[in-house]
From TrEMBL:
Gene3D superfamilies: Phosphoglycerate mutase-like (3.40.50.1240). This is Phosphohistidine phosphatase. It comes from Streptomyces caelestis. Residues 10-39 are annotated as: Disordered. Residues 13-33 have a biased composition (Basic and acidic residues).
Length: 177
């Protein structure tokens, strides 16, 4: 069983004169990102490899989340994840090494939400409806599927097993299979 964990960056600030790529996290984002890391640890969904957008808000989300774990996995900062659409995101996922059983993507909407909805052929409980309604900052979607290699992941092939929305130490309960 392989898992794709999709983490939307935490809440960002919009300071005047700062490019979109360089936007930092807002105070709420600095609280929510560590909560995302704790939520992944509590749900036993720590990745073998993280692929992170090069945008400051995504990199900082990764740093704060990963700081919650004893030994963070390797991370690759990939510029293709910045404002990526579904085909670009799938290209990145398809290039992941086979030895990574659990892969984490840290990036941006609307691409991440669209990716989750594209890959999920089904979802446990109301997870799909919840993603369709909103995929807010710091949201974590966990998709599971059976496949030999990441390049084999196709639309509709995965099961959306949980959706977690951490908020400054509080989170919605995980709904896992």
């Amino acid at each position: 069983m392989r898992r794709l964990v999709v983490l939307r960056h935490a809440k960002s600030a919009r300071p005047e004169g700062v490019t979109d790529h360089e936007r930092p996290l807002a105070p709420r984002g600095r609280r929510d990102a560590p909560a995302a890391g704790r939520a992944l640890a509590e749900a036993d969904r720590l990745p073998d490899l993280a692929l992170c957008s090069t945008a400051v808000r995504a990199r900082r989300t990764w740093e704060l989340a990963a700081a919650q774990w004893g030994t963070p996995p390797p991370v690759r900062h990939d510029p293709r994840l910045y404002h990526a659409d579904v085909p670009e995101l799938l290209d990145v996922v398809h290039g992941a090494p086979a030895e990574a059983g659990t892969l984490l993507l840290v990036g941006h909407n609307p691409g991440l939400e669209d990716l989750v909805l594209t890959l999920a052929g089904d979802g446990l409980d109301d997870t799909l409806d919840r993603v369709r309604a909103t995929f807010p900052t710091s949201a974590i979607a966990v998709l599971s599927w059976r496949g030999a290699a990441w390049r084999d992941l196709t639309p509709g092939a995965a099961l959306l097993t949980s959706l977690i929305v951490p908020r400054g130490g509080r989170r919605q309960p995980a709904r896992d299979a």
